[in-house]
């Protein structure tokens, strides 16, 4: 090796130096850099997984929100329908009550008219009896004697009173 200008002791020293430097660099620089790169890779993976989970949760929340909105719409529609139904029921009740009150007022009016009519008929009958008795008395006074007149008057008055 002398011909090549390589001294074996120097070559051996160079190999030992290279091995020592590689060992030191490997321990001091390479492993910490690899550890740091591995840590960074894990952090990025965790970040990506977290992002995926967040997107998944966001999608679930969007679906849940849609379901809640749909349920709220249905409930609101049901409440509106129930309110309309109750309004119609109350309207029917109010109309029925109004019809009952109108019928009661009509019955009361009819009863009042009937009472007034009966009262007037009784008054007219009494006046008719009085007038008829007066007329009969005058006519009989001219045509009959006093006993006949008196008996006839009593008979007519009793018949008129029975008819009243």
Q: How would you explain this protein's 3D organization?
A:
Helix content is 94%, strand content 0%. It has one domain (8-163). It contains 2 helices and no strands. Helix 1 (8-143) runs antiparallel to helix 2. The chain is mainly alpha-helical and 164 residues long.
Short account of what is shown:
With 164 residues, this protein is mostly helical. Helices cover 94% and strands 0% of the residues.
Low-confidence stretches: none
Mean pLDDT: 88
Helical residues, percent = over 70%
Q: End-to-end span in angstroms? A: 171 Å
Shape: rod-shaped
Run of helices and strands: HH
Strand elements, count: 0
Task: Indicate the proportion of strand residues.
Answer: under 5%
Number of helices: 2
How many domains?
A: 1
Indicate the structural class. Answer: mainly alpha
Question: How would a textbook summarize the main sheet?
Answer: none
Q: Radius of gyration from the CA trace? A: 63 Å
Key structural traits:
mainly alpha, 2 helices
How would the blueprint of this fold be written?
Blueprint lengths: L7 H136 L2 H18 L1
Helix pairs in contact: 1-2
